[in-house]
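Q: Can I see a sequence and its folded structure?
A: Here is a first one.
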Amino acid sequence: MGTFLYMFLFLVSLPAIWAQQVTRTSILVDGTKTVATNDENFICATVDWWPHDKCDYNQCPWGNSSVLNLDLSHPLLAKAIQAFKRLRIRVGGSLQDQVLYDVGNLKAPCHPFGKMKDGLFGFSKGCLHMERWDELNQLLNRTGAIVTFGLNALHGRHHIKDEAWGGDWDSGNAYDLIKYTISKGHQIDSWEFGNELSGKGIGANVNADLYGKDVSGSNVVNVVTHHIYNLGAGVDPNLVSKILDPRLLEQQSGGAYNSGGRQVSNTFVNSFWYLDQLGMASMYNTKVYCRQTLIGGNYALLNTTTFVPNPDYYSALLWHRLIGKGVLSVATDSSPFLRSYAHCSKGRGGITLLLINLSNQTDYIVSVQNKKAVAWVGGKASDEHLTREEYHLTPKDGHLQSQTMVLNGNPVELTEDKSIPRLDPVHVNVNSPISIAPLSIAFVVFPNFDAPACA
């Protein structure tokens, strides 16, 4: 209780805190080779199946945000997806394994999800009608989304005991859905088989022999998914302190489960974890990182009721626009509270740095060096007119749990016509040091950085 009280007092008094110290540090970037490669569309978000009465910790944060009841005609939804130009969207989640597709030779009754005491996650089976499937695909295809759809891997199986399920998967329903999808010309990039069914599973598990039998055959599997929620339960009062703890972030922590943390996962402070997670995951050759969720729950990129973007939406959008596929090695002499990542820039030469300052009292003055023996990084008289681009992210009014992000001193808000705003950088002389304020995040683009690996 004492720890939580301290955290509360710290957060409400944050605007009065000024940097107590200035620390100079250097970052050495090796642009001669990449240490990992990500997909061109690394950023991904999920549209889930949870109905409005999915509740955790005496709150029900899902509203009408599921595959089945989401307002697909809301103009902000389309604009939010289109701003990425190519946003990967995963349609799936915990209930996907007991969704029936109302198509073909389906013999079972196809009813909506309903509360069911002994059902998986407390719900009965649900139904996807093809009219709704067509409407969803029309939105996704029109907005340029890259679609991954999670199939019902428990269909036809039976519950044995505890979380164990046995029997063969009945693939007929999925086959009919795929056949229908192709006949309609809907563009599905990939099909995911099951949701968290491996190992001990979450809610249900299928043993390795059965799982292997279901996907046997040549060239059937080319991607493996891994789910992580290591921050802990969404109700944990220590979520903020965990997010700002570099020792925990070093463990490649996932987000908060059970719908995320109320007034945490949808606020500015979550971007410290989210962007650090993107940076760390990319170093391990992770091709795509799917955020739970695009909309729905407390961890949504878009407000479930208004569809207005939460801070992490803009963090994701900046990453998507600035960060390229090539991951570069970074060496630094700084404190663990300054997290740093380097990538080839997206769609142009040079590199982009992501700098995350977890300290509440240290202003880091950063100099960037190139590991190449003879290389450009700035410093010659001829470079005096060259600039870099900086995107500094802070919370509105200095309140870490604000739902408004500030970019280079300006609140990031929808335009008058309710469109996604421009995210413009400030241009800074390339020879000047980079200042990273306490509890802030910065993307820094060096268009002229000599990085052969990024050519």
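Q: Show me another, different protein.
A: A second, unrelated one:
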Amino acid sequence: MIAGYVQCGKPKEAVELFKQMEEAGESPNEVTVVAVLAACADLGTSDLGRRIHEYLDKCGYRKNVRVCNTLIDMYIKCGCLEIARSVFDEMEERTIVSWSAMIGGLAMHGEGEEALKLFSKMTRIGIRPNAVTFVGLLHACSRMGLIAEGREFFTSMTRDYGITPELEHYGCMVDLLSRSGLLLEAHEFIKNMPIKPHGVVWGALLGGCRVHKNIELAEEAIKHLQVLDPLNDGYYVVLSNIYAEKGRWEETARVRRLMKDRGVKKTPGWSTVTVNGEVHEFVAGDGNHPEAEEIYQKWDELLTQMKPRGYIPNTKVVLLDMDGEENKVQVLYRHSEKLATTFGLMKTPPGTTIRIMKNLRVCEDCHSALKLISDIVDREIVVRDRNRFHCFKNGLCSCRDYW
């Protein structure tokens, strides 16, 4: 039943059932552990996962490769990269799944160089990569802007290992080229694919168009996305944002009307932070939390320290046609990741890492703010958004740049 809940995308129910099992006096076996660790990974909360980790050490289950692989995956998805690496390093036996999980995890956390070093070590000892390994490598190259290396890995898949690229690999290459500003090449790459591109491939091009402000190719991408993935609100929002950043409010409104006419609803943004085992969820402008007043007061205190360090609210990311700069600033100050971070600082001891899970992409203003806050409070702040992990520490982020 626990595994069934996980497979059906209901990790909260899986964890609840596991707790009921414990209360009933039943001890978990390897199968149970793998399932509940997967649920913890989906939820992005490591508290229960750490407790299970301790149980595994006591019961000797750590010799089970599948259990260890799931443990690595759980820690990676919860933003605990160092612990995941220690589990990996302590394994007596590693499979290609172990290596691929660690390579992909390093890439996801912005540790692209370490991911490539681990791949070199893997191949030196004779472990043959698989398709998943190359997804991690291509992600690493994309995050680091390593165009030549990415091209070589993509070619090497077939040439050296006989692995036929799948849609995810093509998507990674389009992402690499698009992020690097090679939008026309990325477009040609899509047109020359031997398999039909899906929404994620065109979505990667669309994301690059937003970064490099190419409206013409963005409109081309959205034509395909409206057919391939017509109910995905994210693509419409990106195009709308591209128009808004250029001040083309009529086109922005047209995209919003199109969404309404097609029944596409914008996904509300939320962020969660776990404190003492309890998950606290925030939405933008949240005033319903019982400690909302204290949270806003704490945020104002942080602002007084951020501004002398150069923080200027980036109202360009408020992609709404609203009057008054001050109104836009207030919208920025109430973004969910800022509220979750502030609450975490209030409720956890000094030096504790704050871990935030967000369902949408972190905005540019929040990215700048969290870098400053990490330095001011001398804390590590780890944010998992819909694209990747951002590890803020000493005023820096693990990513090469915001994008």
